[in-house]
Amino acid sequence: INEFTSPGARFAVGAAEDADVGSNSLQTYELETNKYFEVEVKEKQDGSKFAELVLRQPLDREREQSLRLVLTAVDGGDPPRSGTAQLYINVTDANDNPPVFAQDRYRVRLIEDATPGSMVLNVSATDPDAGTNSHITYSFGETPSRVLKKFVVDAESGIITLQEALDFEETRSYNLLVEARDGGGLVAHCEVELEVLDVNDNPPEVVMTSVSSPVPEDAPVGTVVALVKLRDRDSGENGQVRCELSGEAPLLLVASSGGSYKVLVLAKALDREEAAFHELVLKARDGGEPARTGTARIRVVVLDANDNAPVFSPAEYTVRVPEDVPVGSTLVTVTATDPDEALYGDVKYS
Length: 350
Hints:
Elements: E1 10-12, E2 26-31, E3 37-43, E4 49-55, E5 66-75, E6 82-90, E7 100-101, E8 105-111, E9 119-122, E10 125-126, E11 137-140, H1 145-150, E12 151-153, E13 159-162, E14 173-181, E15 187-197, E16 205-211, E17 215-216, E18 224-231, E19 241-246, E20 251-255, E21 260-265, E22 277-286, E23 293-303, E24 311-312, E25 336-337
Parallel strand pairs: 8-15, 17-23
Antiparallel strand pairs: 1-4, 2-5, 3-4, 5-6, 7-10, 9-13, 11-14, 12-13, 14-15, 16-18, 18-21, 19-22, 20-21, 22-23, 24-25
InterPro entries: Cadherin-like_dom (IPR002126), Cadherin-like_sf (IPR015919), Cadherin_CS (IPR020894), Protocadherin/Cadherin-CA (IPR050174)
Organism: Eubucco bourcierii
Protein name: PCDGE protein
C-alpha cells in the first residue's frame, strides 16, 4: 500500500471458510488493534461473509515501513471457534519528503591566493524517502554568471570547488545559493556565505599628485614642493603604508591628513650655485609579512635667483701708465664674475 493512499481506502483480504452451517458457521472478523486499519465485514449474495481492511489514518513509510497484523475469523458456536491469518502490509514510498540541508546557511573563509581546484565546502542534504525519491543531486540556484565562473558544485557529492582565481581587491565576499533536488522533483535550498581573506599581494604605490618644479632658490623655508599620495589596495596591516625619503636634498617629508604627505624645504636654504637640481627617492613599505615596497623618484630643479653680486678678481688693480701714452690706449683689463645664470650672471662694466 502506498503511503500516499487516502484514508477511507478499502482493501479486500478474502474470506475464511467454515464447514459448519447455521449459527455455527462464520459470523464475523476481528482485527488486531492498531492505529491505521479497521476491519469491516461484508456479506455476499450467497450469505458468505468476507473482510475488508479500511484505512483510517494516513500511513508514513518513514515511521513504519511494514505492518504485521492478525486477522481473526470467529464463528457463532458455543463455545465459538476461530481461525487466524497473518496480514503482512508493506508500505511503499511516496515522495512526500523534500531534501533537508544539514545547515540553512554555511559560512566559509577562503584566502584569496587559493589555487583553482581547491575545495571550498561540502554541503550535504538528506532525504528520508526511498529509492529514486531519496537520490539527491546538487546545483547552484539563481546565481550571477560572474559567480558561476568562480565556483562549481559537484552534482552527486555536493562539493563546491574553486575554478577561477580570487581577488580580494575585486570582490571581498560571495553569496552562493545551492539547490538540492530529489528524484521526485522536490527541492531545498541553502545559502553559502563565502568571505575572501586578503593576502599581501599588492605593493604600495607612491603617486605624485602635485610637483612644483623648478623651485626658486630664494623660496622660504616651509614652501611645499610636492604632494605625495600613498595607496595600497590590500586591507588591514597589509594596506598600512609608511614612507621614507632618501637622497641628499634639503627636503623633509611631513605627514598630513588623508594619507598624503608634504615635501617641504628644510631650514637649510636652497642654493642653485651649489646644486642646480636635487634627485630624491620616495620609498613606501606596507605592514605585511613579508613587507612589500614601492618607490617613486622626484627631481627638483632649482630656479636661479639674483642672489650673487659680481666679484672682481682681483679686487684692487695697480696700473703704471707713461704720461705720453696715446689716447685710446688700453691701460688695463679688469674682470668680474657672477655665479648666477642667464641675465643674472651677465656682467656689465661702468
